[in-house]
Amino acid sequence: MKKGVPVIEEKNEITRKIRRYRNTLYITGSGISALGLWSALRLVLGLMISPQTLLTPEITENISGIVGVLVVLVAFALVIAPLLGLYLFVGKKAREEGLGKKKNSFYIALIVLLASLHIFSIIYCFMGLIGIIPFMQDSIIGLIVSMIVDATAAVTLGEMCMSAVMIRIYEKKNTGN
Q: pLDDT tens digits, residue range 138-149?
């Protein structure tokens, strides 16, 4: 009877870790969905309030009247909508897996893609901060804030990816396969 006790304790430990990783996955999924919504809202509002901060002077000089603004908004929406959809999809799939409903391995690849985009953004902002990209030097505070937000998003996405992978590993151990 004593031989079975460690196996039961090990199964309980594995179950506890799975529960913890699922909780982490659910929380980070919600956070990534919120980040996607915030990013889209920030870009749209920034474009509406001050298009010259998001667009180069050559583009803003050629925008004339409401038609020009609408054309820019439509073009921008073609970029914002897929990115927002990507954040929401990843967040939804992470929350579903966190609740134990569905497993979808494809979203893990999308997590890696999003994390890569945030890491690229950090590098891009850093290049603007040190002067390699000259047109970005006018807002040092904005660049630093962007780098902090991107770093936070990259860490959150990394934690989400790790949790999804660890759930798969521990569930495989738990079933004995």
A: 577 878 888 999
Amino acid 96: pLDDT: 95
Secondary structure of the chain as H, E, C letters: CCCHHHHHHHHHHHHHHHHHHHHHHHHHHHHHHHHHHHHHHHHHHHHHHCHHHHCCHHHHHHCCHHHHHHHHHHHHHHHHHHHHHHHHHHHHHHHHHHCCCCCCCHHHHHHHHHHHHHHHHHHHHHHHHHCCCHHHCCCHHHHHHHHHHHHHHHHHHHHHHHHHHHHHHHHHHHHCC
* In the chain, where the domains are located: 4-175
| pLDDT per position as a tens digit, 114-135 | 999 999 989 988 888 887 776 5
CA distance 64 to 16: 60
